Amino acid sequence: MRAEQMSSVGATKKLTYIVNYLSADDAQHYVHIPRLMHELQRLGWEVDIVSERGGAGRAEILGQRVKFLSRRSKFVRLVNLTRHLLTMRSRGGRLVFVRISKLAAFASALLGKVFGWKTIFWLSGTVEDFNGRAGLRGRLSFGVVWVLFRVVDFLATGPETMVRYYQGLYGLPARKILLLYNDVDTVTPRRPTAPKMDEIVHVLLVHRLSPVRDTARYFPNLLEALGEFARETKRIVQLDVCGDGPERARLEQIGAEAADVQVHFHGGVPQRQLGAFYGKATLFVMPSYREGFPRVMIEAMAEGLPMVATSAGGSVDLCGPLQQRYVIDREDAAAFGRAVKRLLAAPRDRAALATENLRWVTRFSSPEVARMYDRTLSGIITARPAP
């Protein structure tokens, strides 16, 4: 739709936000979305949340009304999505934001070109080298995404490294890419900024145990470092792993052979229960070879946790200058282990990192990110952003 046509509805800020799954008990990052949508509503947006899966009809999830498409097949969901989008358009909606779901993005983009709305597709991740190993299947996957990026009106991604990544890999012009952050709750009271070393040293790892992340690459060095620290300090060291996925069995096998460190696999932990793990942790680790915008890092920062992470995806963009010293080259698994041991043995460094992370993470607070969305999305429909 032309700019002058879009400006005719500039005073009405309406957004249809589509995810592929939403549940209050979810262990994935989608549970953050209702809070962000609430903040957008405070800025004058009428928000319509749609979940492809997870239920039927409408339900209230974490304080937001959600429309579920179907529990049935993809075809039924596609039909219901088409109906919903056409209804949205008839009620004056002209902006659709699709998070990750390629099918919904294709459908919205193609329909939008006919009936007059804009489609934004959100994606962040460096999985193309992994998919490339799958031969023809990997090339087809790359081709589908290449076409999708050209069909949708905008690609939204973050942080800054991922903008450059998609520009280079897919040849997208800068005007087609929107920089939008993930958000995190920074309001809930947090731990002291100088965490003490308890009798049991808890090291926390939170993410999906997928071959894409290749956590097994770092796991032996991580466990060796924790074991060495336990022997040298005579402390009990426990590694809590929250997450599930195809790589879990392999990691459990490696963990069973670890010396002087207790490894506990807790499976997929619902987001609302993760606070207990963050609260008792001394150190957060993110041993991952591929990432995009790792939300677990800003969750740990918001909890006042020092971290050791890899340089996967946009990890380094999220951190302040002190914490960046503990973002390790993803190619150096041995250095990752050494950094973990070094930081555990340095209480002053941990305290300094905790303080910096609590201050730095405010850039990703839900109100701040909502204002970022408001400015960007208002510009697309030529509406006036909230003051």
Strand and helix map with partners:
Layout: H1 3-7, E1 14-21, H2 33-42, E2 46-53, E3 57-61, E4 64-68, H3 74-90, E5 95-99, H4 102-115, E6 118-122, H5 128-131, H6 136-151, E7 154-157, H7 160-170, E8 177-179, E9 200-206, H8 219-233, E10 236-242, H9 248-256, E11 262-267, H10 274-280, E12 283-286, H11 295-302, E13 307-310, H12 321-324, E14 327-328, H13 333-344, H14 347-360, H15 366-380
Helix pairs in contact: 2-15, 3-4, 8-13, 11-14
Features:
eight-stranded mixed β-sheet, 19% strand, Rossmann fold, disordered N terminus, alpha/beta, six-stranded parallel β-sheet, 2 domains, globular, 14 strands, 387 residues
Structural account:
Residues 1-10 and 192-196 have low confidence and may be disordered. The chain has 2 domains: 3-183 and 365-380, Rossmann fold (3-Layer(aba) Sandwich), CATH 3.40.50.2000; 200-364, 3-Layer(aba) Sandwich (Rossmann fold), CATH 3.40.50.2000. The chain is built from 15 helices and 14 strands. It is of the alpha/beta class and 387 residues long. Strands 3-4-2-1-5-6-7-8 form an 8-stranded mixed sheet, sandwiched between helices. A 6-stranded parallel sheet has the order 11-10-9-12-13-14, with helices on both faces. It starts with a helix and ends in a 7-residue tail after the last helix.
